[in-house]
Amino acid sequence: MINLKKSLRLKFLEKNKGDLVSGPFGSNISAKYFVDEGIPVIRGNNLKSKSKYFIDDGFVFITESKAKELIKCKAVKDDIIFTAVGTIGQVGIIPKSTNFEYYIISNKQIRLRVDKDKANPYFIFYQLRSKSLRKYLEGQNRGSSVPLLNLGEIRNVPIKLPNLLTQKKVVAILSAYDDLINNNYQRIKLLEEIAEEIYKEWFVRFRFPEYKNAIFCDDKGSETPPQTIGSLPYGWRKIRFRKFIKLNRGFDLPNEKIIHGKYPVVASTSIKAFHNEYKVKAPCIVTGRSGSLGSVQFVNQNSWPLNTSLYVKDFMGNSVYFVYYFLKLLNLERYNSGAGVPTLNQNHLHGIQLNLPDKSLQQNFDEIIAPIFMEIDLLNKKNKLLQDTRDLILPRLISGKLSVEDLELETLHI
Q1: What is the SS3 assignment for 138?
Q2: Can you give the pLDDT at residue 51?
C-alpha cells in the first residue's frame, strides 16, 4: 500500500509547471456538436483497457472551430486522463504514437499534464492505476447517485515521487508487463477474427469444405442452382429460433452476497466478479437482457450469469461455437422491447428464421474452431497471471519497498 503520510499531493505537480484541468462544462460538448470527422473527444470507453495505456479509437468528434473554443481541455501525448464522473478509477495516458495530433477531453474527464523535469508521466499513471489509489479515489466520492470527484479532491490525491532515474526504472519494469499483456491481446484478437471469418465463410457465404460439390435444394427438396435465392445445401434446414436453442434469464446475486472464488459472475457485457459458486456449467454463452444489449460472451468456465443477462440453457444438440457466432452476428440490440431501459424479450426472438446446417458440418466446424478457442483460453490465462504479478509488484515498486537501485536502466529496456 502507498504510505499516505509520506506522500506528496497531485497539486505539487500542478504548481510545478504542471497542469490539471477538468472537462468542458455541461452542454459545451453535448451530442448536438458531434460530427463525422474532426477533433476526437476522449470519453470513459477510451480508458477501459486492461492491457493498453489508452484506446485510440471509438471516438465522437467535434469541429476544429469548436475544439478551439475548448482549447483549455486539449490533450496531447503523455497527458494523463482519468474519470471524475461516473466510473471513478478509469485512467489512461496518451502514448507517444497516437492516431491524432490532439484531443479534447469530455465533461466527465480530468486531464493531468506533469512537468517532465519533476515526474515521469507513466510513473504517475501507474500510481493512479494502482488498487490503493483507486480505492482512495472511490472514498473521496462526493456524488449521491452518480459518483463524482471535483478538482479540489483530485489535487489532494497522494503520490510518491522518487528521483527521475528511479521513476524510469519502475516504469521500465511495469511497462514490460503491459507490453507482454498487450501482445497477447493482439494475438487473441487475431484468433477471434480468424474464427469469426471461418464461420462467415462456411455458414453465411456457403463456402464450406467441398461446397463446389454440394447439392442445393429449395424448401420442397427440389434441386436448384447454388445461386438460387432461398435455396440451401442438401441436409440444411430452415427453422425458427425457438427450435434452435433455449435462452433463460440469469440469476440474482447482490453485490453483498458475492463471496470471492473462481467462478465468473457474468453481467450483460463483461465478467463482473468471481464467486465461490456457479449456476451454469461450461461453456456459458451470455447476452444482455436489461440495460446493455447486443454483446455476446463465450465463457469457457462454470459460471454465474446475472439476472441482467440471458444465457443458453439448452443448445438442442447444436455446436456451441455455431450458436455463439450466430448470436454474435444477429445484432440483438435490434430486438429492444424496453421503453426507458433497453430490454431484450426472448419471446421476440422465437419467430426468427435461420438456416441450420446439418450436424456433420457443425461437427467439422467444431474440430477447427475448438483448438482456436483453446489457444485463446491459454493466452487469457497467461494474461491473468501477468496482470496479477504486475498488480502485486506495482505498489511495492512505487513505495520503494521493492528496490530498483541496483538495476541498470539499459538492462531493463532490453
Answers
A1: helix
A2: 59
Cα separation values, 254 from 265, 275, 369, 412, Å: 11, 11, 35, 44
Grid cell for residue 191: 484468433
Residue 244 banded pLDDT, cuts 50, 70, 90: very high
Report the C-alpha gap between 349 and 240 in whole angstroms.
Answer: 9
The closest alpha carbon to 127, from 394, 338, 407, belongs to 394
Rounded CA-CA distance 36/26 in Å is 21
CB atoms within 10 A of CB 324: 22
pTM of the model: 0.81
Q: Which three cell numbers stand for residue 223?
A: 434441386
Output the pLDDT for position 414. Answer: 52
Q: Going from the N-terminus, what domains does the chain have, and what CATH number goes with each?
A: 4-161 (3.90.220.20)
Render pLDDT for 303-346 as a digit per residue (tens, 0 to 9). 999 999 999 999 999 999 999 999 999 988 888 776 567 788 78
Q: Judging by beta carbons within 10 Å of its beta carbon (0-12, 13-18, 19+), is residue 100 exposed, middle or buried?
A: middle
Average pLDDT across the chain, whole number: 88
Query: What phi, psi does 285 have (nearest 5°)?
Result: -105, 125
Angle at 44 between CA 83 and CA 75, to 5 degrees: 75
Tell me the per-residue pLDDT of 170-195, one tens digit each, with 9 for 90 and over: 999 999 999 999 999 999 999 999 99
CA distance 141 to 155: 14
Provide the sign of the torsion angle of the four alpha carbons 174, 4, 274, 248, taken in this order.
negative
Give the pLDDT of residue 343. Answer: 81
Return the SS3 of 326.
helix
Q: Which of 43, 16, 18, 17 is nearest to 29 (CA)?
A: 43
DSSP code at position 301: S
Cis preceding linkage at 357, omega within 30: no
